[in-house]
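Course assignment 3, question 2. Fill in each field.
Student: A.L.
Task: Predict the tertiary structure for the chain below.
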Amino acid sequence: MALKGKNKKKNAVVDDTGSSLVRRIISGEMVDSDFFGRHWVLMLTVLFILFTFISGKYTCMTSYEEKMRLQDKLDVTYKEFMRVRSEYMGKIRESVVKQRVDSLRMNLDLQEVPAYQVVLDK
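Answer field:
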């Protein structure tokens, strides 16, 4: 019978651990007062690693955003280049040039026969 009483007490403590744990954390009973004094090197190491991780993550995210911004700028520039190129190619097309020369009445005509190369014999 004595054992049953002890088991009941243990079960009561186990059932109440959720609220007891919260109470202990809030009141500061979870960690001894000299815990940080004894483990200050470990705590500084953990903080250093944590800050390094956060710094690396921030640097990675800002670099990725910069890469995406530059990629978008490159896409816009390439599309502008293609638009200007097609406009230029349209302006130098033979039919367009012939039409422009005719509209200006410069009396110029395209040569039907290709130019001959004169070679002198010695």
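Instructor remarks: Confidence is low (pLDDT under 50) at residues 11-15. The chain is about 75% helix and 0% strand.
Grade: pending
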